[in-house]
Each structure stands twice: as structure tokens, then as C-alpha cells.
Amino acid sequence: MIELSAKLTTGTVYLAGEALECCITFCHTTQPEHRNSQSHSDILENLAWASAQIHCFYSTSGNPGDKSLSIEKTTALEVTSCDIGDVVFHTKPKILFCDLTIPLGETKTFWYRESLPIEAAPSYRGTTIKYSYKITIATQKVGSHIKMVRIPFRVLPISPIMNMQDLAALCGNETTEDLQPTNPFSEERKVETPLTMALQVLQNLTARRSPNSYMITNTRGKVGRFCLFKSAYKLGEDIVGTFDFSVGTVTCMQVSVSLQPEEILKSKTPAKNVNKESSSRSMTVARYHEVTLGLTHSQLILPIPLHITPAFDVNEVSLRWRLHFEFVTTNEKLCPTPEEKDWNAPLNVPIETMVWNLPVKIYSTLPKQITQHSVRSDAYTLCIK
Questions:
Q1: Cα(170)–Cα(362) distance, integer angstroms
Q2: C-beta of residue 351 within 8 angstroms of C-beta of residue 334
Q3: Which distant-in-sequence residues (6+ apart) come within 8 Å of 295 by Cβ?
Q4: What is the pTM of this model?
Q5: For the segment 263-277, what is each residue's pLDDT rounded down to a tens digit?
Q6: pLDDT bucket at 44, cuts 50 / 70 / 90
Q7: Closest Cα partner for 312 from 266, 358, 257, 372?
């Protein structure tokens, strides 16, 4: 029996454009029931070939017969799509070996290295669409069927900017080289790749503070003022803002803020009474709630989870993020003045609820920031008999 073991040595989270590395070992072991009855054929095991490649699977929760996207066919491995989805992207298969003989008790190790395209769709599990990435390792023993093992990993979008010319222009306009110390004795200069340029642009976008104030009003008057210190964030950061109810003429009893994704499906075959953006669904991934009755100021701190998918835009779907506000207001003066000694709270209060959506931009973070808070990945094994 040959035991195949595979493990990603560079983590399980990658940015689009990064290179991954997988260690693949083949170990010839003996089954416990056959340890005392070994023949000459059991001493040597032969594998005809082994290959590895990356697959991106696409699946929907809607009508499985309605497929308007182009499906790529694999060139080496026939991947079934009954429970995983359709293959929309794959790398060229790399042959690890041909005609390998492994003596009993020995182990052969191979390395698989591949770079992801910078324009690759991210890993995403939405309400109707799912993108997932797996490394498919296939091998065949002489005289046996093909055996496969798949290693899942996560891909983060590098940036909504997919045009390399625009990316280079932005990087040139927003460089930080002037702030870095230079070595007068160094003649080497680092070559800027699309990945490093995109990382520099993302760092500049998310580090910039640009406070914006919004006056919140309804039909009865001013509710308050909300200040958001910046509009672009990375995964794991906190969305920080402040509420100022001292400028309001309407009493705000409570406020809630939710971080919600907007999943917009794109229809390639528009029908009657159907918009180009065929549907938009939202859910809440983080929530802030506070009773603000009697408060003149309040602070919003909303952590961005590391497991969510940053904003992206591909042919089938686009994902955006927003802050969904809900204000519960009333025209009644519920807070007693210092002159009122015998004040009683009313039993019933007429209220109104108003909602407001504020778009925010959420970008990727460095994969090491995510792997520090995730469970350590184990090796995937497969027994080949």
C-alpha cells in the first residue's frame, strides 16, 4: 500500500497573484494484516504517473440547468462536477513523475509550485453563488484506477483594479519611496510586479484618513450627525465613527448599525421585466446596537470579520459592502429637566424607524494576518492499494 500525503507549506490563504507551494510525499507502507505474509511483489510498488493542478469551482443555488457562463474543460484530469461545481478556471497540470518505483519502507517527496493569476476570482460563498479553490493531486497505480485528493485553500482578491495600466499609474502617483530611507551604496533596484504594485496601492487606500460628516434628518427634523473617519478598510480592521445627537431636534431612542454585503447577480441573457442586475441579496455579518436615549454623543466600533470576502467584480457577480443604519426616533421629550422633580416615564411612546445605507469599501489584508487567527492546516492523506 502507498500512502499519499499532501500539505500546503505556505499557508491556506493566498492573494490573487501569489505563489503557493505544496509538499507531496508517497510512502510505501505495509498493511497490518499482511505484515507476516509478504511476497516479492509487495516489496516494490510502482506508480505510473502523478500530476497536480489548481481548479476553481463555480456553483449556484438556483436552477442548475441555467448556466450562462463559459465552462473550461480540463486537459489532463476529468473532474466530476456533481457535488463540487463546474470548473471555470484551472492551471496547466504539472507532471510530478512517470513510472516511479518505491521500495518497501521508503518515501519519495515532490514539490508542487504554482502562481495564481492576479485577475482570479476570489473564494466566495454567497447566497446564490459559490467560488472555491482546490489543488487536485491525481495518481495511478499500475493496473488500478486513478485516485485523486483535493486540498482546499482560500483566495483573496488583490484589488478591484484589474487593469494593469491603471494599476501602474495609481502606483506611480501614490508612491511611498520618498518616505523610505535610501542606501547610497546600493545599486540594485527592486522590480515592481503587478502584485507588489497592487499591495502598495491597497496600503495607500486603506491607510488614508478622510473624515466625512453626514447630517441625519427625517421628515420631522434633525436626528443627529454621524462622522466616519475613513471609507476604505482592510479585513480585520475596526470601522470607527461617532454620533452627535446634540445638534438634533428629534429624540433618538436607539440606533443599530449592521455591516452587510450586497451580492449583485449579473444576467447575461436579460429577459422581460428583469434588470441587468438580476438580483441583490443582503445579510448581516457584524452588528452594533446602543440605546441612545439621554445621550448627546456615542461612538461606533464595528469589527470587520476576517472570514468575509472583500469587494470584487467578475462576470457573474459583483460584491459590495455597506453600513445599514436603523434609527428609532420620537418627537416626545422623554428626558426630564432639572426643574421636574416628579417626572414619570410614559407607558407608551410613539416611535418612527428610519433606515439609511452608507457604502464602504472593504479590501483584502495580508494572508499572514488571517492565518494567525485560523486553525493550523493538517496534511491530506490518501491510501492507494
A1: 18
A2: no
A3: 245
A4: 0.79
A5: 988 865 443 443 444
A6: confident
A7: 266
